[in-house]
Design brief:
CATH superfamily: Glutaredoxin
Order of helices and strands: HHHHEHEHEEHHH
Number of strands: 4
Strand order of the largest sheet: 2-1-3-4
Shape: globular
Largest sheet: 4 strands, mixed
Number of domains: 1
Helix content: 40-55%
Length: 191
């Protein structure tokens, strides 16, 4: 997947983004669904320890839609991960309000959501993950029912939430290790 993501666009969009609670509050009708998943999501002590061990700043933009079932069922997981480290600055933007960024992170030719754009401290793109993690796709494929984008209040099993949380955590860890092992950033930080 090749994307043209200039750092000025990323830094400007990140600065305009909202934190999780502010983003969810933009849609009072759907906010309870987001908060319900958020409340169900917890980090095990080992997951929390992993995240607390991060040493490089991660700027993350999630291109989302409050109306999207996949966003409702995965977004709160991202929020929980970000809450565990002051080095993760996660911001939310509405896909339809950020057409320039949305058009640059299209997946399979479409404006899919959620899409997480992971950046280093200089807002240089490091990774993009969306619209569903592998375990999320596996669960949907196993059910093979319903619309391709579930309704925001569609039930989701705890095991599916946990597997999807692990997928997202794996990507955060992968990006953190990429940044930690980067010769350029190691020279910059003197470590």
């Amino acid at each position: 997947m090749t994307h043209d993501l200039p750092t000025d666009l990323l830094s400007t969009t990140h600065a305009a983004g909202l934190d999780f609670e502010a983003y969810v509050a933009t849609d009072p009708k759907r906010a309870p669904d987001w908060r319900a998943i958020h409340e169900r999501t917890t980090l095990t002590p080992s997951r929390r320890t992993l995240i607390e061990g991060f040493v490089r700043r991660l700027n993350v933009i999630v291109v989302s839609g409050t109306w999207c079932g996949d966003c409702v069922q995965q977004g709160p997981l991202l929020a929980r991960i970000a809450e565990a480290s002051d080095l993760i600055d996660l911001r939310w933007v509405d896909r339809d309000e950020q057409p320039e960024l949305a058009s640059r992170v299209r997946i399979n030719g479409g404006d899919r959501v959620p899409v997480a754009v992971f950046m280093n401290e200089f807002f240089e793109p490091v990774s993009i993950l969306g619209d569903r993690t592998l375990n999320r796709y596996r669960a949907i494929a196993a059910r093979n029912l319903g619309p391709s984008c579930p309704l925001p209040n569609a039930p989701v099993a705890d095991s599916e939430l946990d597997d999807t949380l692990q997928d997202w955590l794996d990507e955060f860890e992968r990006v953190q290790l990429l940044l930690r092992l980067s010769p350029r950033l190691r020279a910059h930080h003197g470590d």
